[in-house]
Amino acid sequence: MEKKRLSKALAAAGIASRRACEELIFAGRVQVNDQTIKVPQTLVDWEHDKILVDGEKVRGEEKKLYYILNKPKGFICSNERVGNKPIIIDLFERTERLFTVGRLDKDTSGLLIVTNDGAFANRVIHPSSNIVKEYLVRTEQEITALHLKALSRGARVDEKWVRPVSVHKVRRGTFKIAVKEGKKHEVRILAEKVGLRIVELIRIRIGSLVLGPLPEGKFMPMSEKDRALIFAQ
């Protein structure tokens, strides 16, 4: 069996993303054949090596799973529960470890990708992929030409000037905005800066993958074509 770097093998087993697996290794939380290993480049294979994370045996590479989810409001994009707040994984009745590709805040709904493939997730969220995400925004106020012009100019978010890829009005109190910076609360901040109060924020597109008619709170398997659409701009 072909040997793999320890960090890559753990990521392929669905433990976490490659970078997160490296952090686990650096922290001394990974053992190979009863020895603590702190070098992510250590070569291993599942046939001959016993690999443990936090004392739990890793069973080997998992079948890669990919889902499209229409995230409901109120759910948190985290695998760690805080109190009794609902998390995304509550919507899935599976024993495999799953995680979200990027995040939507608690009050945002819409298109979310859920997987156990750390390499795929990293490719989607890495800035070099330059993936555009589009949102449908409903506001308390009517959208005017001045609002659209101000939104198009952009605003400072996290000490960086962020300018949308596109902005256009849909109807009286609704507009669509496409962004690619990936800053936290980016769309909410852009709207706030021009005096708009958001009532509802829905992500409707990632790359060329659109949410479509999938009901809120429901998920469906992603096809290979769906995955390719994410990177098709």
Tally of domains: 3
Helical content stands at 10-25%
The main β sheet shows up as: 9 strands, mixed
SSE ordering: EHHEEEEEEEEHEHEEEEHEEEH
Helical run tally? 6
Shape: elongated
What structural category do the secondary elements indicate?
A: alpha+beta
Oligomer: single chain
CATH fold node name of the largest domain:
Alpha-Beta Plaits
The parts where pLDDT drops under 50 for at least 5 residues are none
Q: Return the CATH class of the largest domain.
A: Alpha Beta
The strand count comes to 17
Characterise this structure.
With 233 residues, the protein is α+β, with helices and mostly antiparallel strands. The protein has three domains: 4-57, Roll (Structural Genomics Hypothetical 15.5 Kd Protein In mrcA-pckA Intergenic Region, Chain A); 66-127 and 210-230, Pseudouridine synthase I, catalytic domain, N-terminal subdomain (Alpha-Beta Plaits, 2-Layer Sandwich); 132-206, 2-Layer Sandwich (Alpha-Beta Plaits), CATH 3.30.70.1560. It contains six helices and 17 strands. The strands form four sheets. Strands 7, 8, 9, 10, 13, 14, 15, 16 and 17 form a nine-stranded mixed beta sheet that branches. The longest helix has 9 residues, at 18-26. The two termini are 38 Å apart.
List keywords for this structure.
3 domains, elongated, 17 strands, 30% strand, Structural Genomics Hypothetical 15.5 Kd Protein In mrcA-pckA Intergenic Region, Chain A, Alpha-Beta Plaits, 233 residues, 4-stranded antiparallel β-sheet, 9-stranded mixed β-sheet, alpha+beta, single chain, 21% helix
